[in-house]
Amino acid sequence: MTRGVFSLLVRNAAYRRLWLAQFISFVGDWFTFVALAEMLYQETGRRIETSIFIVAQSVPSLILSSVSGSLADRIPRKKILIACDLLRACGAFGFLIPGALQLHGTAAVCIILLFVLFQSSLTAFFRPAGSACVPNLVDRDELSAAGTLDGISWSIGIIVGSALGGLSVEYLGLRECFVIDSASFIASALLLRSLPLPKTAAAVKIPGGKWIDFAELFAEIRLNRKILVPIFAKCAWGVGMAQVLLLTTFGAQLVGPDLAAAGVGLLYSARGVGTAFAPTVARRLLGDSDRSIRASIIYGFFFASICYFIFGLRPGLVVSLLCIAGAHGGGSMIWIGSTVLLQKAAPDRVRGRAFALEMGLHTIISCAAALSAGALCDAGFDPANLVILFACLTAVFGACWTIFAWRLGAANANSAARSE
To answer: Is 252 within the bounds of a domain?
Structure first.
């Protein structure tokens, strides 16, 4: 099965272009994440600003979900992807403004967060379009392999981007990180320029010239409740965003205060290792069926909860890195499994809005979790204890999702039996 995953890149040139474009931009994104997290902490000495930074990355997905999802279903998706990349390439230079104008404190933080919102708003349009066009490029039985490859590209992007980002902050400087981020978006746009997407997702209007809104998606959900299973899985994993914030507090503890940024980069690299390998192993052991994918999501919640609980007990460096790899390996199983299930369940005419709705609901949970974690850190709570708390919450959310998916599956089975 693993060979089949990578052979998809070899035999499908169209999907390969999309995969490479996303991988390049992922590397640039994680360069910037590490740099901005460290930059904000240097400016304020507090973690709540880092929480706000994470929330600022997520909020546009919630606010713009109705617009971005409709656009992804109503205009050519390739145009959306390229336009977002080019605009993000320009926006990356905005992070250089505080240094160029020698601004510090509140003024610098406000400018940074303003451009974070700008970049994240464009990402809110890019993601639904990118996820929705994958079924247009691969066969239905290849969606699981494509989902695994998508997770691998994101994971390697974390590994390379986080590690190099942390080293660049320590040894080169912040400016180089932002320049590399801009270049990554330009490279992505060049790859997408010749992407041969079919015209099935081009502009379609209803009589009277009005755009179809989310009412069509909700009508589809009433007829096909399987769409809710992957949407709610990603929402449940939103509580894990608290751990993403809390990781930024452990860099100095792992490698010393003089190399705190490098320590954070090391943790995020371990996160990337786990997200790269876990979905591939799960696919090999469990298979590609919908039932197998749902099982991998359940295992994902289990591993994420257990590994973060152990990490909160402050083990040594090696065990800590293994715990982060295991926890986010579980998170990747949740993320990729839910993505593949939604690609299968949602028809093409509403797929962009389905992914926008999913991301919007996930954003609500993740923002609440990240803000809560940051506020509790600044209130004096031990970050290690908070890691354990949110690990327990992840287990509770995972259990709730498991019960929901099981009951819905049982109801669908009973309905099918009655119809026969």
So the answer is: yes
